[in-house]
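User: Here's a chain of 291 residues. Predict its fold as tokens.
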Amino acid sequence: MTAERPLAPWDLPAGHPGITFLTGRTAFFALARDPRFSYCLYVPADHAPDDPPLPLVVTVHGTRRRAETLRDAFADFAERHHCVVLAPLFPAGISGPNDVDSYKLLSPAGFRPDEALLDMVDEAAARWHVLADRFHLHGFSGGGQFAHRFAYLHPHRLASLSVGAPGRVTLLDPSTTWWHGTADMKERFGTDADPAALRGVPVQLVVGENDTVTAELAPDEDRRPMAAGTHRVESINVLRANWREHGIDARLDIVPGTAHDHFAVLPAVQRFLGAQVSASSQPRTPEVTEP
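Assistant: Prediction complete.
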């Protein structure tokens, strides 16, 4: 049986109600390969197949899974920068009734959330006209954990990377096993860490100045080596220093007067991503007026 082709907005006649589900704030779409996961998007209404493909920005939720709210926070950004925003949803409870963390660590639960995200990107490219070979990735808190680990596995898929306030960090360390280090990446994922590939990716690390509360973090023996810091500000500085040792020149934005609040750091995130999206955008085809 032939698989049904996903409809794009321009496949529907003007005024068709289905267009409202495929532009602006879209519905959630189940991932075809694994419907346990889903995603929603923001698609500029004037997006058209005859224009150059739009840059794609992926925004990954934290532990509370506020995917739709995060997508909505990027709606004005998408219109200003003429890009498509994709927000994946990795539900809690995938590996068991009490699982809230497995998507952040990429491998321990017998599924690969990094590969699920790549499938989401492929599905978006099949329905909308987007630049899918390389996309911009942002995540905060649990999403920041996901984002920097994804970068180790798929640096060649990234146009830029923004990592916000991860509670646990994975260092480029060939002497320590995953998730604290990268010693066994080849056995787990089929690929080794490649710092050289990340050197060409614009990277932002971002955290609130007052993001030093440890109450929501796991105990140190479960979370990370003491060398990686005792709270999020320390951890992100350790990650930056580790990356700089490997030639990855990550900028660090510390947002004054802010604790662990994703939406308070978003202005800094969007300034960074806006510059990167503008740099990766292709000029739009000008309209031709008949004389």
